[in-house]
Design goal:
- The structure holds two protein chains of two kinds.
- By secondary structure, chain A is mainly alpha-helical.
- Chain A is built from 22 helices and seven strands.
- A four-stranded parallel sheet of chain A has the order 2-1-3-4. Chain A has a three-stranded parallel sheet with strand order 5-6-7.
- Chain A is globular and about 80 Å long.
- Chain B is mostly helical.
- Chain B has one domain: Fumarate Reductase Cytochrome B subunit (Up-down Bundle).
- Chain B is 76% helix and 0% strand.
- Chain B is built from ten helices and no strands.
- Chain B has helices spanning 4-37, 51-60, 66-71, 73-91, 94-104, 113-136, 138-143, 146-166, 173-190, 198-215.
- Chain B starts with a helix and ends in a 5-residue tail after the last helix.
- The chains are: A mainly alpha, B mainly alpha.
Chain lengths: 425, 220
């Protein structure tokens, strides 16, 4: 690796240092409580995965260049320098063993938002050429094809035809002036086609004017996962451009956690301007429809159900009560996991971990935390609202021979809609 | 300075003044360095405020959530004990209050000496326990640096020397009192250059944490 590449990485880290970062590093007392909040730490028992340690490259740059005392120490040769070897060693810590779930950020006694800093440190990792192959591949495919999995519109089109055939309803495409532009995630299109069918039914039922866009259907943002602002901004611009072209009032992020935080919270800052539309997670939209009496449901699920809150949705975006309101609508035997909402535990697959094949063993290790939580309440099925979480829950539960199916909340709602006469065709 | 009285006069005079100057100037630089960095404009439509949640988190983060308490009871309990113990001995010991009256011109009621004495003993024991924990706990051992042990030492010494002085366990008295004040000077000098800055910056960090989460509609 050349000096130039390292310098580019260091520059990216320098550009990320702001007042919160300085306040956070000035406040860490090395108490180690962040390790008790991290499933990669608790389940492997390896202290090298302690969240604050993962930030050492960013901390060194801050201390040696952004504090007077640090600059004096550096000039005397007393500071450790960030080297290419160090960044190579930290790649596993910043990507494989961190899902950016933010649980450490919510328990740190001095108030350090560690997840905020992990996201920033990844910028330096990408710029210095230290991002995992799996994520580089996903980001490249997202830029080239519009989908991190290389999925094209024609695949979605087949699914649209299938949904239209099975429901007798139209799946609106490129309808200018619709109230909502619906985005999907490739993982959802491939693994959970029932989602598209569910929203088609629900929106018809509630009389919602919506549309898909052939210009942009992908909601996820591999640029944010890998930590590249350039890639992330390009992907956000595609959504903004599609929404602007169709002149929609709102954009709906699908059952995916990071897609929502990407578009809802990071997107406007990546492109440096506010949107001419509003952004909602599908669960927020469904709960609004419920609250305004536009969701008429009948019957309830009778088996014992529990719920996994996606980190990005609950802890990182405050969508916590909405999914519970919706569960009450269609489930009579719902029990929450003991630690849920803002204190929920990550499934282990977020933050790009699931796109990083090499991280598979760590991803499964981290899942053991979720498994223990599920075992505590012994549900017959789990409900969630993120395709990545859902895939991880399904794989994890199967790995541990636990016969607990996982369902998406949106499709569960769709299953209970009151029939309103013969379908329009 | 060769006699104990000369030593005492130096540490409580020029020594303390120098230490206070380094402490005040050093901390001023540290705080200014933080705020000068600023934050970028946030264009995302907020779900909640920043100021309210920020100040709320300054208070609420003092109390561990039940899950964290169950997973790190030592950190939580011993952390609380020694922080409160340290503050009581510093702020509610009557001779200390007299010192504050002399320097700052303000005073407040103190606690009876035997109470402060007992609190000091508990605080000393709690601090020793934190050191043992740091040396033995796998995570703490892994993340600790020489600075952590330096900070532990400069925090421990004022308590230890204060206890020895109060009980007249070292003679002559001016010597141990001088050592006590010297240890405080050392604490003040080390303060701005180590994690002791958290005494001030943790409030800033908690505010930012609460503000960042609050803007997204999450109570942190």
């Amino acid at each position: 690796m050349s000096e130039l590449t390292l310098e580019r990485g260091l520059n990216a880290l320098r550009a990320e240092i702001d007042a919160p970062v300085a306040a956070f590093f000035s406040s860490c007392v090395h108490c180690g409580i962040c390790a008790t909040a991290c499933p990669f730490c608790t389940e492997t028992g390896d202290p090298k995965y302690t969240p604050i340690l993962k930030l050492e490259p960013l901390r060194l740059v801050w201390e040696s260049e952004f504090t007077l005392w640090g600059r004096i120490k550096s000039s005397l040769g007393l500071s450790r320098k960030v080297t290419d070897e160090m960044l190579a060693e930290w790649e596993e810590l910043l990507y494989d063993s961190c899902s950016m779930c933010g649980r450490c950020s919510i328990v740190c006694p001095v108030g350090n938002d560690l997840q905020y800093m992990i996201r920033k440190t990844r910028e330096g990792m990408v710029a210095s050429g230290h991002a995992p192959e799996g994520l580089i591949g996903a980001a490249g495919r997202a830029i080239r094809t519009g989908s991190p999995m290389g999925l094209q519109w024609k695949t979605l089109d087949v699914q649209i035809k299938h949904v239209e055939g099975s429901t007798g309803l139209e799946v609106p495409v490129d309808k200018a002036g619709a109230d909502y532009l619906v985005l999907l995630s490739s993982m959802e299109i491939i693994n959970f086609p029932e989602y598209l069918e569910a929203i088609t039914k629900i929106f018809d039922h509630a009389g919602v004017k919506w549309t898909l866009s052939t210009d942009c259907f992908e909601a996820t943002n591999a640029g944010i996962q890998i930590g590249s602002k350039d890639i992330a901004a390009e992907l956000v611009e595609r959504v903004v451009s599609a929404a602007t072209k169709l002149n929609v009032k709102n954009v709906i992020s699908p059952e995916c956690g990071h897609a929502y935080t990407a578009i809802r919270w990071e997107g406007p800052n990546l492109i440096g301007r506010s949107y001419p539309f509003r952004v909602f997670h599908i669960i927020e939209v469904l709960d609004d429809l419920r609250a305004s009496g536009r969701l008429q449901t009948e019957g309830k699920e009778t088996d014992r159900l529990s719920m996994h809150d996606p980190c990005n949705l609950a802890r990182k975006s405050g969508v916590i009560q909405q999914q519970r309101n919706l569960m009450d609508l269609v489930a009579e035997n719902f029990v929450d996991l003991k630690e849920h909402g803002k204190y929920q535990w990550c499934c282990g697959a977020g933050g790009g971990v699931s796109s990083n094949e090499r991280a598979e063993p760590l991803k499964m290790a981290a899942f053991k935390r979720k498994k223990a939580q599920i075992e505590e309440v012994e549900p017959e099925r789990m409900v969630t609202m993120c395709a990545t979480c859902r895939t991880q829950l399904e794989e994890g539960l199967e790995e541990f021979n636990m016969d607990i199916p996982v369902v998406g909340l949106t499709e569960m709602i769709a299953d209970h809609l009151v029939e309103k006469g013969p379908p329009r065709g | 300075m060769s006699d104990p009285m000369g030593f005492l006069l130096w540490v409580k005079g020029p020594g303390l003044n120098w230490a206070l100057a380094i402490f005040a100037l050093g901390m001023l630089v540290r705080i200014v360095e933080i705020f000068m960095l600023g934050r970028k404009t946030n264009y995302a439509e907020p779900k909640g405020g920043e100021w309210g949640p920020g100040f709320k988190t300054i208070l609420t983060r003092s109390v561990a959530d039940p899950g964290t308490f169950a997973r790190a009871p030592f950190n939580v309990v011993v952390g609380w004990i020694w922080h409160i113990g340290f503050l009581i001995t510093l702020l509610l010991f009557i001779p200390h209050i007299e010192l504050f009256r002399g320097v700052l011109g303000i005073a407040w009621p103190g606690l009876p000496n035997p109470v402060v004495d007992a609190v000091t003993a508990i605080t000393i024991l709690a601090l020793v326990a934190t050191l043992v924990h740091r040396l033995q706990h796998p995570v703490k051992k892994r993340i600790s640096t020489p600075e952590d042990y330096l900070v532990w030492t400069v925090t421990f010494l004022p308590l230890l020397t204060g206890y020895l002085a109060y009980h007249r366990l070292v003679n002559p008295y001016p010597l141990i009192l001088g050592l006590h004040i010297l240890s405080v000077n050392l604490f003040l000098v080390v303060f701005p250059f180590t994690k002791l800055t958290h005494v001030f910056t943790a409030f800033i960090a908690r505010w930012y944490n609460g503000a960042i989460f609050g803007r997204k509609g999450v109570e942190s």
